[in-house]
Design goal:
This protein is mostly helical and 205 residues long. The protein is 66% helix and 0% strand.
């Protein structure tokens, strides 16, 4: 078995491509930057011990699946700690006004509408358009069926078209890594955004 860690050049390339999107993705779940970074560090440590041949053709879904599980574990652990100490979970910080100005009113409006979608639909939109995963890969990451992934994406895009207009909704995955991170890092304003366990519930029609 040739482990991924035996090829430093390959690992460096994986880090350069996926570290920032993974941190942003984990941050959506943990709500804490340091915890998100710890999760991603553990994800890459686990990658070092994987047989490269086994994951080379499914690297992205493998990384996001592991990252998602670790982030949910971290969030649950934090919730148990907070309950023990009777601490109160602080709401996520509101989006900075300068971000809307930087990216334009149309993009700011689109991001605001995405933040109003159910948590599961937000996750699928970002995995599809920010990360570029296929339906099958998204199903592997989230544990949903492929048909359910397609249905939820359809519902999300239909809602965005109704509110923003079809020409302003995403149609192809982003290729700019900075844009990927920007979209993933925007905090959700939905009522259940601070509860990642809701991500594991089936979405009712």
């Amino acid at each position: 078995m040739v482990t991924s860690g035996s090829d430093p050049t390959w690992i460096e390339g994986v880090l350069a491509r996926w570290e920032r999107p993974l941190v942003a993705y984990a941050l959506r779940i943990t709500r804490d930057l340091e915890s998100a970074r710890d999760v991603v560090q553990e994800t890459f440590l686990r990658l070092l011990h994987q047989d490269r041949a086994d994951i080379a053709d499914r690297l992205a879904p493998w990384l996001f699946t592991v990252c998602r599980r670790l982030a949910l574990d971290e969030w649950r652990k934090e919730q148990r700690t907070m309950k023990t100490s009777t601490a109160v979970l602080e709401p996520p910080a509101p989006a900075q006004p300068e971000r809307a100005a930087e990216h334009g009113a149309a993009r700011a409006g689109l991001m605001a509408e995405i933040d109003l979608l159910p948590n599961r639909q937000q996750e699928l939109l970002r995995l599809r358009f920010d990360v570029g995963l296929s339906y099958r890969e998204m199903a592997d990451v989230t544990g949903l069926s492929v048909s359910n992934v397609g249905y939820l994406l359809h519902m999300a895009l239909r809602r965005l078209r109704e509110t923003m207009g079809e020409t302003e909704t995403p149609t192809t995955p982003h290729t700019n890594q900075d844009a990927q991170t920007d979209v993933l890092q925007r905090p959700s304003t939905t009522p259940d955004a601070s509860n990642p366990d809701a991500q594991n519930e089936e979405v009712n029609r």
